[in-house]
Specification:
Blueprint: H1 3-17, H2 20-35, E1 39-40, H3 48-51, H4 55-77, H5 82-92, H6 97-104, H7 116-123, E2 128-129, H8 132-151
Parallel strand pairs: 1-2
Helix pairs in contact: 1-2, 1-4, 1-5, 1-8, 2-5
Length: 152
């Protein structure tokens, strides 16, 4: 899933659960459940070098931060509690390992080191497909509608 969809899901969990000590770990765990679903990406074990060969990957990497801005704008506009932001970060956190894997290893022709969580994360990415973009779009639209309704 895109970072914005992970962040939205983490925030929705925080707003629904309304108990930070429970919601934040659940937001983190939601990342793996989402990544086990069909979502945008390209199948295979070639890593990011393969993904970056596709123009659509570059477009997503440009659009995702812009959508994160719209997500943050909603949280700011509706004065969300700080722990809702923390849950959003917790939900995105597992993806912080990917840039290290690519820039630190793959790009240099080395096999990336992965933490045990990173290994799990890599193995569950079985349903990455280009058509998963439609899942991502639907998740974003429905997630933002749900988020805003919970924030009001």
């Amino acid at each position: 899933m895109t970072a914005v969809n992970h962040a939205i899901t983490g925030s929705v969990i925080a707003l629904v659960i309304d108990k930070p000590l429970l919601a934040i770990p659940l937001a983190f765990a939601s990342h793996f459940l989402q990544d086990a679903l069909p979502h945008f990406g390209y199948p295979g074990n070639e890593g990011f070098g393969e993904a970056f060969k596709h123009r659509l990957t570059t477009i997503i990497l440009i659009i995702d931060p812009l959508l994160i801005i719209s997500f943050l704008a909603a949280l700011i506009y509706y004065s969300a509690d700080v722990w809702v932001y923390i849950a959003a970060i917790a939900a995105v956190l597992p993806d912080f390992e990917w840039p290290v894997a690519y820039w630190g290893f793959e790009r240099k022709g080395k096999k990336p080191w992965r933490s045990p969580i990173g290994n799990l994360h890599w193995r569950i990415q079985k349903l990455e497909r280009s058509w998963g973009l439609f899942v991502e779009i639907a998740w974003y639209v429905l997630g933002m509608l749900l988020l805003i309704s919970l924030l009001q």
